[in-house]
Fold this protein.
Amino acid sequence: MSNSSSITEFLLLAFADTRELQLLHFWLFLGIYLAALLGNGLIITAIACDHHLHSPMYFFLLNLSLLDLGSISTTVPKAVANSLWGTRAISYGGCAAQVFLLVFLIGAEYSLLTVMAYDRYAAICQPLHYGTLLGSRACVHMAAAAWGSGFLNAVLHTANTFSLPLCHGNGMDQFFCEIPPLLKLSCSDADLREIGLIVVTAFFIFACFIFIMLSYVEIFRAVLRIPSEQGRHKAFSTCLPHLAVISLFISTLMLAYLKPPSISSPALDLVVTVLYSVMSPAMNPLIYSMRNKELKGALKQLILLVVFQKQ
């Protein structure tokens, strides 16, 4: 039996069975990570450099890409390095940093997706007041509130998790430090602080989810009242990528944290974790650029500019 005060490192046991599996994990995750860096980096650069994209929708999309870059960079590089060198260890401080950053970035992303739903609602349902409702100062305040809520959530959950005594070893069936595996190492059952944090977080998540759903009910009502087919198509084109990103993000998070213990298994937990922590940040740039003509045009101009400058 060990105590949390004597633990100096944790062991990340996922993909650690055979050398072949470690190398497969290395190449697969490295490829996905580079694709995520490229996709999100291009979106950030295109929005920052193209003045036609200096609007609230693209300002929030830039913030989303920054959060995606941060979240995938929190987990994947350490896992890739461990697989390459055949190691399993992560320091106690490194584990705490991973938990804090991941909770911070994912919480901020969920809040930002809620703000983006409001942006689409204002653009489609209140077009005459859009400039007033989402002026530059209002956009900055809403983005700051999203980042701030994620930071506060991360401080509370990280402090609570790492204050619990640990006496069930230091091995986790995961490729990065995550709260549920850490709680399994705890000696104590859920205390009042933990229950309180879970209730507050669940209420916040549920409130944001209801707000997003109500926003899209009003959006679809407004879109269906648009007389021209071209107008309806344009409105749907701006909403569907955001709705797809929300669906992917929320569904994978719900599978990761709300699935019943009866269906939980190390293999399923690993697959679900890969979906929300690795695949979602890598897929978001592709989802947003597929149906957005303005963004695709800006990305093409950026790529052509880079290619011709090198020649």
